[in-house]
């Protein structure tokens, strides 16, 4: 397992001007070059504290949020019980004093418990309402808060050793040295990797989609690489209010085919990431297809792609290139406990991840694992009009794009695994 500590200590000195040019390394495979080298600054103690705290808040949100809801509900029931035990609600204080039905002490106890019950009820109702709807869940508020420029993300990028490589393959042409990423210029000479419409496919998903998150959330992550895009996220994220808020600030797109298709059909007037999306094709189901599941070895990496044709149909329909990206280390940031098989079936049916995972110190804090993104060659739709394709012809072209994508993911994995330190690992397309 390759950890961040393996990065050379003098890397920052050798690549201090990394934002202005691209770099090569004699150890890199042929046709591979840096887009973003590892961070020159070391991960400080403050960086680690920021990462640990934000992990507990965001990654651990399903635990503390729903735990808090249950706690407040139980406290409300408890105080209501104590109030009713002390006395039934009196008509007025004068009646109590005159008729001697209750003492002033009992009345005080009743008022105290009733007040606590009301506080719990109001707090509970407020949290539930804000979790379902709220003005804070708005992309414009995220822009106003400059969420993508927060100091927190710099700490995270240093923690994960954020690195991006471009792999043009063994047929790498020196005349293309000044290009930023693999571009489909054979079909569109004006393609710009940072602004042109495209679908970025990030493999693998991981227990938590760190690869997709750090590709689109920190400004430093996307500004130097693939540009701004809208993340495609599972519908189940709506169940996690804090995560949902961050996704809303990033202008996320629901993972349903209709929602993604609408996002890829936007006009130029829509602004922002115009017809550009990033997706993890394997989705939630992919997290179950790794060790410790039966039939998998510790050295197996898995990509759930064989039955995933959706993005290729959308790419063909909207005439967009698919840019394959493999993120080394994404599956090692958290570890999963193997649960009974019916939990996996239930997760797929509900489209939500029902799994038991842990990280550093047994908490929802990711292990410090270097994330190395490798951008492969673009998968292009045919240049001819797709509207003329019949149903069978359309399916044939989709299958061809699908096979090319899987082959490219396997190629960039095998070509770069030695450099990452995973020479003994195997990628399985399932």
Summarize the helices and strands and which ones pair or pack.
Layout: H1 11-14, E1 32-36, H2 45-58, H3 61-86, H4 93-99, H5 104-132, H6 139-145, H7 151-159, E2 163-167, E3 198-203, H8 210-216, H9 219-223, E4 230-233, H10 241-249, E5 253-254, H11 257-263, E6 276-279, E7 300-303, H12 310-318, E8 322-328, E9 335-337, H13 341-350, E10 356-358, E11 372-375, H14 391-420, E12 426-429
Parallel strand pairs: 2-11, 3-6, 3-8, 4-5, 4-6, 7-12
Antiparallel strand pairs: 1-2, 8-11, 9-10
Helix pairs in contact: 2-7, 3-5
What does the model show?
The chain is built from 14 helices and 12 strands. It is of the alpha/beta class and 430 residues long. The chain has an 8-stranded mixed beta sheet with strand order 1-2-11-8-3-6-4-5, sandwiched between helices. A two-stranded parallel sheet has the order 7-12. It has a two-stranded antiparallel ribbon with strand order 9-10. The model is unreliable at 1-22 and 172-183 (pLDDT under 50).
> How helical, in percent, are the residues?
40-55%
Largest sheet: 8 strands, mixed
Spell out the helices and strands N to C: HEHHHHHHEEHHEHEHEEHEEHEEHE
Principal-axes geometry comes out as globular
Report the radius of gyration as a whole number of Å.
26 Å
């Amino acid at each position: 397992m390759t950890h961040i500590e393996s990065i050379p200590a003098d890397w920052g000195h050798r690549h201090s001007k990394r934002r202005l040019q691209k770099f090569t390394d004699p150890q890199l495979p042929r046709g591979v070059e840096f887009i973003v080298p590892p961070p020159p600054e070391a991960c400080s103690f403050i960086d680690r504290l920021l990462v640990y705290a934000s992990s507990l808040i965001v990654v651990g949100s399903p635990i503390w949020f729903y735990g808090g809801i249950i706690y407040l509900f139980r406290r409300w029931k408890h105080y209501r019980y104590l109030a009713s035990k002390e006395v039934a609600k009196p008509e007025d204080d004068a009646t109590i004093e005159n008729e001697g039905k209750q003492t002033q002490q009992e009345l005080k106890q009743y008022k105290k418990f009733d007040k606590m019950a009301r506080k719990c009820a109001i707090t509970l109702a407020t949290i539930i309402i804000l979790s379902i709807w709220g003005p804070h869940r708005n992309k414009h508020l995220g822009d106003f808060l400059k969420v993508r420029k927060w100091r927190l993300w710099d700490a995270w990028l240093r923690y994960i050793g954020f690195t991006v490589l471009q792999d043009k393959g063994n047929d790498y042409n020196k005349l293309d040295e000044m290009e930023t990423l693999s571009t489909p210029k054979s079909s569109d000479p004006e393609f710009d990797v940072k602004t042109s419409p495209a679908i970025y496919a990030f493999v693998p998903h991981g227990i938590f989609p760190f690869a997709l998150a750090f590709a689109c959330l920190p400004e430093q992550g996307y500004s130097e690489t693939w540009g701004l895009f809208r993340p495609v996220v599972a519908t189940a994220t709506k169940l996690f209010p804090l995560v949902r808020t961050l996704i809303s600030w990033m202008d996320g797109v629901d993972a349903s085919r209709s929602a993604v298709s609408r996002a890829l059909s936007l006009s130029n007037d829509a602004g922002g990431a115009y017809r550009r999306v990033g997706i993890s094709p394997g989705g939630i189901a992919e997290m179950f297809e790794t060790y410790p599941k039966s039939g998998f070895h510790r050295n197996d990496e898995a990509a759930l792609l064989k039955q995933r044709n959706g993005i290729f149909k959308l790419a063909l329909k909207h005439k967009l290139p698919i840019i394959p990206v493999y993120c080394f280390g994404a599956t090692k940031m958290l570890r999963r406990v193997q649960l009974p098989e019916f939990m996996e079936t239930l997760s797929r049916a509900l489209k939500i991840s029902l799994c038991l995972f842990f990280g550093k110190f047994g908490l929802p804090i990711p292990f410090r694992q270097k994330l190395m993104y490798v951008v492969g060659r673009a998968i292009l739709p045919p240049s001819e009009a797709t509207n003329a394709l019949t149903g069978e012809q359309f399916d044939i072209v989709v299958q061809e794009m699908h096979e090319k994508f899987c082959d490219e993911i396997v190629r960039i994995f095998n070509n770069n695994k030695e450099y990452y330190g995973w020479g003994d690992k195997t990628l399985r397309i399932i």
